[in-house]
Write a structure and sequence with these properties.
- This protein has about 325 residues and is α/β, with parallel strands linked by helices.
- Helix content is about 25%, strand content about 20%.
- The chain contains nine helices and 14 strands.
- The protein has an eight-stranded mixed β-sheet with strand order 2-1-3-4-5-6-9-10, with helices on both faces. The protein has a four-stranded parallel β-sheet with strand order 11-12-13-14, with helices on both faces. A two-stranded antiparallel sheet has the order 7-8.
- β3, α3 and β4 form a beta-alpha-beta unit.
- The protein is globular.
- The two termini are about 35 Å apart.
- The structure holds asparagine.
- It comes from Arsenophonus apicola.
- This is L-asparaginase 2.
- Keywords: Hydrolase, Signal.
- It is an enzyme of class 3 (hydrolase).
- InterPro entries: AsnASE_II, Asp/glu_Ase-like_sf, Asparaginase/glutaminase-like, Asparaginase/glutaminase_AS1, Asparaginase/glutaminase_AS2, Asparaginase_C, L-asparaginase_C, L-asparaginase_N.
Length: about 325
Amino acid sequence: LPNITVLATGGTIAGSGESPVKASYTPGTIKVDQLVALVPQIKQIANVKGEQVVTVRSQDMDTTVWLKLAQKINAQCSGTDGFVITHGTDTIEETAYFLNLTVKCEKPVVLVGAMRPVTALSSDAPVNLYDAIVTAASPDSAGRGVMLVMNGKILDARDVTKLNTENLGAFQSINYGALGSVSDSKVTYTRTPVQKHTGQTQFDVSKLTQLPEVGIVYNYANASDIPAKAFIDNGYQGIVSAGVGNGNISHAILNTLSNAAKKGLVVVRSSRVSSGSTTRNGEIDDDKHGFIASGTLSPYKSRVLLMLALTQTKDPKKIQQYFSQY
Ligand SMILES: NC(=O)C[C@H](N)C(=O)O
């Protein structure tokens, strides 16, 4: 049987509550060995070694844990056949994309979460964990970048997005569609990501203990530039605009960001709209302002890429190339 390493970080997949039919519960109460033991069928698929990396609700996930996970996977790559990372669903797609850009391991790396805690009626935690192990144990899963497995779908780290606060099918690959599916203890792939990932990227986090600070500024009718100014005054190196429509920005925020970009702040234009591309030089002249257009990356994934880009360069032209490649 293949050897699979499960790195646990907490979340609802390890959560428990008093009542199987009430909404209240606490994420991260069940430790990794207990969680794996809840699904004895896993023993027929793989030899599992569990490690509790942290125990957090994923709304408390941070860059220190991201760096720890990437460094751990890179260090343990040769001693295992694949990794499964259990994670809360609130920020799972950010962690997945960070690992997609920083892991240098050709073995499958699969993130998994659950929408219902282990103690809920019809919890999705056991089946999602089982499916994630099946996916990580399949040699077919290698070379496709970091993936997320939930609700029978295999989704790529770059495109996967949480689109619902409650449903078991909360996660979708909105622009490009699923990579494949897992059912009847088997994986089926129909697509491979073409953007560069894992060993194909230039980001090396092996010696990093922190990442450059990048904030996100949200746009809306009557939007204020107070958050943008606060990030600038606090020395942030980059700002991602979660713009309206095709990455559009209201005049107050646009002026503030444009002036700051001239003084060296790196600004990425993305959109609060969940699908479609923020295209370069549309209504906003990115060349004139020195901005970067995010393409199909969401604001929070743009932030992940911008933090990593800033470890290498502050040149908006080079960073624009990263946004096209990754
Ligand atoms: N379903 C979940 O996992 C939600 C939880 N708040 C978390 O992200 O840890």
